[in-house]
Amino acid sequence: MVGLLYFSVNAVPDPPQLRVVVTGELDVLSAPGLRGAVARRSAEGCSSVVLDLDGVTFIDCTGLSALLACQQEVAASGGTLSVAALSAAVTRVIELTGTAGRFDTMTLESA
């Protein structure tokens, strides 16, 4: 029996910033939802994206790939992407893969 997977993306536009709160498992099934939320930022007039990843309980290589793709897409359009409030799961994956330096980080208070 397969258990239920939990994932949510809450995108809160406050132009010029878009805050994206990610909760649950960021994997092959949920990564497109994150990429879609970030991709819609231009239509909402947001050039700055802040990802709040504190609620991410699991992340696999597809989830990490989605984070990197979001960063590249936002940068390519002249915007900025920052990550805030990293969960232990996300911290471990980006440290193990050596990708921590690819992301701008900020504290939740300054986001």
UniProtKB/TrEMBL annotation:
- First and last residue of the signal peptide: none
Higher taxonomy: Bacteria, Bacillati, Actinomycetota, Actinomycetes, Propionibacteriales
Provide the protein name: Anti-sigma factor antagonist
Family named by the database record: Belongs to the anti-sigma-factor antagonist family.
What residues does the STAS domain cover?
20-111
One function term, GO molecular function aspect: anti-sigma factor antagonist activity
Sorted alphabetically, which Pfam families does this protein's record hold? STAS_2
Q: Which residues form a coiled coil?
A: none
User: Which organism encodes this protein?
Assistant: Nocardioides marmotae
Q: Which PANTHER family match?
A: ANTI-SIGMA FACTOR ANTAGONIST TM_1081-RELATED, ANTI-SIGMA FACTOR ANTAGONIST TM_1081-RELATED-RELATED
Q: Which SUPFAM superfamilies match?
A: SpoIIaa-like
